[in-house]
Design brief:
160 residues, alpha+beta, GTP Cyclohydrolase I, domain 2, 2 domains, four-stranded antiparallel sheet, 4 strands, 41% helix
Length: 160
């Protein structure tokens, strides 16, 4: 017990010193911390993705699709400009519901749909669409088309 009482003042002094060091960092530490925040803020890159699984379509005689949609946002997007992904999903499903060229290759369909998504959603910098077609009795192979489309203006972010 005697050792405890002798060590107590030293522990209190160290604790108080640590408390004030954390509350009042050195000027160099404050500059370093400020620099880190600046780097983090300028390095922001945002993307989002979702999947539509088992979408039945009439295209090419009837098929079942799995769609993976990935997109990046334009730099500096405001909070109120973020789209609800369900709106993009609806555009994709509506596209196949109103398919006028049911015999077009999947690559052509994909190019048209990615262009349509960028047209409908101006806050997007780029969009990547992966269309996977499941095997059928007519065509017993899985096949996938992937298209990435970016805006050509300078306010866009990097590709997904």
């Amino acid at each position: 017990m005697n050792r405890f009482w002798r060590a107590l003042p030293t522990a209190v002094v160290l604790g108080v010193a640590l408390f004030f060091a954390v509350r009042n960092p050195s000027p160099q530490f404050a500059r370093d911390l400020s620099a880190d925040r600046t780097v983090t803020a300028t390095a922001l890159h945002e993307d989002f993705s979702f999947e539509i699984k088992g979408l039945a379509v009439r295209h090419q005689g009837g098929n079942r699709l799995h769609l993976t949609v990935r997109y990046t946002y334009k730099a500096g997007i405001k909070d109120e400009e973020y789209p609800d992904f369900r709106a993009l999903s609806s555009v994709c499903t509506d596209y196949f519901a109103h398919d006028e060229n049911e015999s077009a290759y999947w690559e052509i369909v994909n190019k048209e749909l990615t262009a349509h998504l960028l047209e409908k959603f101006p806050m997007l910098a780029s969009v990547q669409l992966e269309i996977s077609v499941t095997p059928t009795e007519r065509i017993p192979w899985s096949r996938t088309s992937t298209v990435t489309r970016s805006r050509s203006d300078s306010s866009s972010a990097s590709e997904p």
